Amino acid sequence: MVYALWDTQSINLVATYDSLRDALALVLRGIERNGPQDTETLALDVEDENGNVTPIAHGRALAELARREFQGVSLAG
C-alpha cells in the first residue's frame, strides 16, 4: 500500500509513505507549524497493490484524522 499526500490546488504530489501513520505525521507537523489552515488544500489517498486508489480524507477531515492519530503528542521540532 502506498499513501499519497496531494496538494489539490497545484495538483502536485507532496509525499508518499508506506504507512498511514507516517503520512499523518507529516500532516500534523504542518498543522503544528502553520496552523489548521495548512490542510485546506491537502488530500490523502491510498493505492493498493492492484493500483486501486481510495480517498482517505482531505481538508479539515484530514486535519482531524491526524490529530486523532496522535492525540496528546506533539511532533513539531
Low-confidence stretches: none
Give helix and strand order, one letter per element, not per position.
EEHEEH
Distance between the termini: 28 Å
Provide a count of the helices.
2
Number of domains: 1
Instruction: Indicate the mean pLDDT.
Output: 91
β-strand percent reads 25-35%
Number of strands: 4
Name the strands of the widest sheet in spatial order. 2-1-3-4
The gross shape turns out to be globular
Largest sheet: 4 strands, antiparallel
> Which structural category fits the helices and strands?
alpha+beta
> What value does the Rg take, in angstroms?
12 Å
Task: Provide the helix percentage.
Answer: 25-40%
Could you walk me through the main structural features you see in this protein, from its secondary elements to its overall organization?
The structure is a single chain. This protein is of the alpha+beta class and 77 residues long. The protein is 34% helix and 31% strand. The chain contains 2 helices and 4 strands. The chain has a 4-stranded antiparallel β-sheet.
From the structure above, extract its key features:
77 residues, alpha+beta, four-stranded antiparallel β-sheet, 4 strands
How is this fold's topology laid out?
Elements lengths: L1 E6 L4 E6 L2 H15 L7 E6 L5 E6 H11 L8
Antiparallel strand pairs: 1-2, 1-3, 3-4
In short:
With 77 residues, this protein is of the alpha+beta class. The protein has two helices and four strands; from the N terminus they run E-E-H-E-E-H.
